[in-house]
Amino acid sequence: MSDYKDGVKMSENKESLNFIEQIITDDLKEGKNDGRVHTRFPPEPNGYLHIGHAKSICLNFGLSQTFQGKCNLRFDDTNPVKEDVEYVDSIREDVHWLGFDWEDREFFASDYFEKLYQMAVKLIQKGKAYVCECSPEQIREFRGTPTVPGKESPYRNRPVEESLDLFQRMRAGEFEDGKYLLRAKIDMASPNMHMRDPIIYRIRHTHHHRTGDAWCIYPMYDFAHGLSDYIEGITHSVCTLEFEVHRPLYDWFLDQLAEANSRPRQIEFARLNMTYTIMSKRKLLQLVEQNHVDSWDDPRMPTISGLRRRGYTPDSIRKFAERIGVAKRENIIDVSLLEFSIREDLNKKANRAMAVLNPLKMVITNYPEGEQEILEAINNPEKPEEGKRKVPFSREIYIERDDFMEDPPKKFFRLAPGREVRLKYAYIIKCEDVVKDENGEIVEIRCTYDPTTKSGTGCKKKVKSTIHWVNAPTAIDAEVRLFDRLFLNENPDVAEDGKDFTSNINSDSLNILEHCKLEPSLNGAASGQGFQFERLGYFCVDSKLSSPESPVFNRTVTLKDSWAKINKK
RNA sequence: UGCCCGAUGGUGUAAUGGCAGCACGACAGUUUUUGGUACUGUUUGUCUAGGUUCGAGUCCUGGUCGGGCAACCA
Questions:
Q1: Which pTM was predicted?
Q2: A263 in active site
């Protein structure tokens, strides 16, 4: 069951509010913003969205749902050299897929370029901004350091008229990149670096993915972001912790330029970090460009598109976001919590099927040759309404190589010479013989079956283990891709001296198995459709590589495996 | 050595001056034709030193530790 119904968060069994919900509740009590709650999700279209963005999306859209407000999608596209429409498209798709709807409120910071320009003009007129001619080196030098105050620019007291004229000519394209800058006139001695006459416009003769060549000056984040919030009537501007020191500047622009009585309020929360995972767009881009992964939607990537292709459901990701909570403390979430969330979801939703990844041929010597019978299998024990399906059975089947041991340790319950196990939905069989090739490798197991132990006939006989299998003559051949963590260490961001994070990459994160055997009901499974392969894990049809003629499945996540633990001891 | 922020079990997150709870993990058990699921139980925590108070995880002061801030990035 989804936790969302009619767009309203249903899990109101939670009795405590996170600190942002608390702030909004208090604001509402004080009658701020005429009782409105309006948030926004503001990605820069310079990369694909990842699980950290999912936290922010769930937060912002979730806030609008719990307070019956609105949430905008706004592309923060003020730096044309890094941005692209490819990213815009993927962001739209990913937010929708997660289950959120911004209705007709899709905006771009670039929509406001004219308004922002006019606001900048107003700032100059008020004597609160000036056109500066410092070089990048001079800017750096004059800025000072956190412990040393900055020095004022020689252009700081340029007459208003002159700044106005220059700014207008900057826009008109009279100057080359870097020749002039527009800066806010605040305080070069401020203990907050961001208040030391920050740059608000720079010249960049670059084609913009939306405005084309209409502009050659572009506003900086601090100027554009808060004012875009203001223009859209945002009430609560939620962002991550690193923007905390920007807040005084955010408020300063509003103090100078806001006229309406409703003003946005910036609130910062701690971004998501996850073990064995990299969460920076820049580094994710590097993984793609250096071919450490195939693409942004490689199933090993922590991107939303990667998780989707891996077999994660929107519900599982939203549940995960709810579980990890929202606070201001730096955090590192164990990736096993994400895995728990998808197992929990798929356990209830995914139909079961039998598949053998590493096939070992078994011949049931006392089963009549050439005969086949049809057995019934339960589609989902958690959902009886899913009913049953037919599974063929005959003299020759495949079992999992791991389910047989010639010389088993004490706690191994599965098949071994002389031992009995149940074949799921079929019969109890006994291993009579092991056939090996000239290298001593086991190539076939010969068994006998007990016809009185057929499943569903009320057989009382108990065996220690039930194993899955696939009927050999009707088996579908498939490729199955197993994934391991992309990084070897818990915190891949920190690498050994002199090395970058790519030195932590797990070179063995992709394991492609050919000629896996699937039960025939899996024929025609839809792209992206998820299944539980009994005893193995959750798998889905790969949306890019699979075809009806040669199916490809991705393993989303294994089942919890207590045997693996016992085996390790 | 400036400014800002933070600190609750292994990992997260609640407790709004009044019994430190929940989830995940770990461990043990019950059920089971998935060594899955479900269920039960166990385990481990308020950074530190003072202060205010009948009472402090919560308020105050000092310290310690961690994070952020010096792109014409966002």
A1: 0.95
A2: no
CA/C1' separation A564–B14 (Å): 34
CA pair distance A256, A184, nearest whole angstrom: 11
Please give the nucleotide, over all strands, whose C1' is closest to the CA of residue A138.
B72
Residue type, A557: V
Q: What are phi and psi of A444, to 5 degrees?
A: -160, 145
pLDDT digits (tens, 9 = 90+) for A457-510: 988 899 999 999 999 999 999 999 999 999 999 999 988 877 899 999 999 999
| CA of residue A15 to C1' of nucleotide B19, angstroms | 18
Find the Å distance, CA of residue A28 to C1' of nucleotide B60: 29
How far CA A357 is from CA of A2, A403, A468, in Å, comes to 32, 11, 11
Query: Which nucleotide shows the minimum CA-to-C1' distance to residue A203?
Result: B72
Closest protein residue to B35 (Cα–C1'): A563
CA of A314 to C1' of B54 (A): 52
Is residue A281 flagged as an active site residue? yes
pLDDT value, residue A498: 75
* Gap between the Cα atoms of A134 and A264, Å rounded: 33
Of these residues, A9, A21, A44, A82, which one is catalytic?
A44
Torsion over CA: A403, A454, A535, A475 (sign): positive
Helix ranges (DSSP H) in A110-220: 113-125, 136-143, 160-172
Mention every residue, 6+ apart, whose C-beta is less than 8 A from residue A419.
Answer: A430, A431
SS3 A247: helix
| Complex ipTM value | 0.96
Question: A501: Cβ–Cβ under 8 A, 6 or more apart, which residues?
Answer: A278, A283, A487, A492, A493, A494, A495
Both tokens of residue A431? 């291993």
Q: What is the pLDDT of residue A14?
A: 57
Please say whether the beta carbons of A77 and A209 come within 8 A: yes
pLDDT tops 80 at residue A9: no
CA-based Rg of chain A, rounded to a whole angstrom? 31
Three-state DSSP state, A566? helix
Annotated active-site residue A271? The verdict is yes
Which nucleotide's C1' is closest to A43 (Cα)? B74
**Residue whose entry in the numeric block shows the structure tokens 């490729």:** A479
8 Å CB contact between A513 and A491: no
Checking each nucleotide's C1' against the CA of A348, the nearest proves to be B37
Nucleotides of B under 7 A from a protein CB: 1-8, 10-16, 23-27, 33-38, 66-74
The 8-class DSSP code of residue A532 comes to E
Which of A281, A310, A424, A555 is the catalytic position?
A281
Answer yes or no: is pLDDT of A11 > 50: no
What is the pLDDT of chain A when averaged over all its residues?
95
Cβ–Cβ < 8 Å for A211, A85: no
Q: Report how far residue A78's alpha carbon sits from residue A117's, in angstroms, rounded to the nearest whole number.
A: 13
Q: How far is CA A440 from CA A139, A396, A436, in A?
A: 74, 22, 5
* Phi, psi of A501, rounded to the nearest 5 degrees: -60, -20
Mean pLDDT of A267-278: 97
Question: Is the backbone of residue A8 left (phi > 0), alpha (psi -120 to 50) or beta?
Answer: beta
